[in-house]
Amino acid sequence: MTDSYLCPYCAVTVDAFDALKTHVIAEHSTEPLPLPDGVIQLTINKQAYQLYVEPEWTLHHVIHDRLGLTGTKTFCDRGACGSCTVNIDSRPVLSCMTLAIECKGKTIETIEGISADHHPLIEAYVTQHAMQCGYCTPGFIVTGKALLDHNADPTEEEIKEALAGNLCRCGTYPQHPKAVLEAAQVLREGR
Predict the structure, then answer these.
(1) Which conformational region is residue 134 in: left (phi greater than 0), alpha (psi within -120 to 50 degrees), or beta?
(2) What is the mean pLDDT of residues 92-114?
(3) At CA 187, angle to CA 183 and CA 190, rounded to 5?
(4) What pLDDT does 1 receive?
(5) Which residues pair with 107 in a beta bridge?
(6) What 8-state DSSP symbol labels residue 99?
(7) At what angle do helices 120-127 and 137-150 cross, to 10 degrees?
(8) Integer distance in angstroms from the first to the last C-alpha of the chain?
(9) Which is it for the CA torsion 144, 145, 148, 150, positive or negative?
(10) Are 66 and 137 in contact (CB under 8 A)?
């Protein structure tokens, strides 16, 4: 027998079901139904999702393993290499270090979304030969996209600073700033 009831909207405790019903109607009648525990709504690459997530699932696990957006890579799985970078609300974030349950209501952009939008970074990375094996490339491009979203005319030093958290075992570092500068120029010229 239950001796108390918890309001799913505001966590107020009442001692009878009828009291809970009266409270919900009086205080929350205009609010949408609350989502069950573990269910989050978020937007990924302009598509709305409502997902059930376990508390320990990382954002990378949800994006890569549950939704099949495999462009987001995992290499170190410790937040040290940047290959899992996605943009959350236009800020680069390490998806292997971010709990998916904390992303409720967020807008997320992955390399697939940047590519689908035909962002000039994609072409610039090709023309500037800014990749060899390509495993780290999505993380660099996503980070570069976040930089260009906030700074349309970055200096080479600003680009190097922005990309400092991304590692490349192939050693393509000199080409990344060139690619970002090329994409910035294309964006400024409206091409």
Answers:
(1) left
(2) 97
(3) 140
(4) 61
(5) 43
(6) B
(7) 130
(8) 68
(9) negative
(10) no
E strand or H helix at 49, and its extent?
Answer: strand 47-52
Whether 2 shows a pLDDT value over 90: the answer reads: no
Torsion 165-167-171-176 (CA) sign: negative
Residues comprising the chain, all counted: 191
Q: List C-alpha distances in Å: 100 to 51, 61, 76, 84, 182.
A: 10, 8, 18, 14, 34
β-bridge partners, 91? 88
Report the pLDDT value the prediction gives residue 33, as an integer from 0 to 100. Answer: 84
Task: Looking at the chain, list the stretches that DSSP marks H as alpha helix, in order from N- to C-terminal side.
Answer: 17-28, 59-60, 111-116, 120-127, 137-150, 156-162, 175-189
Report whether 187 contacts 148 (CB < 8 A).
Answer: yes
Contact 130, 181 (CB under 8 A): no
What lies within 8 Å, CB to CB, of 106 at 6+ separation is 42, 43, 88, 89
Q: What is the pTM of this model?
A: 0.85
User: Could you count the other beta carbons within 10 Å of the beta carbon of residue 144?
Assistant: 30
Residues 6+ apart with CB under 8 A from 68: none
Which residues touch 151 (CB under 8 Å, ≥6 apart)? 158
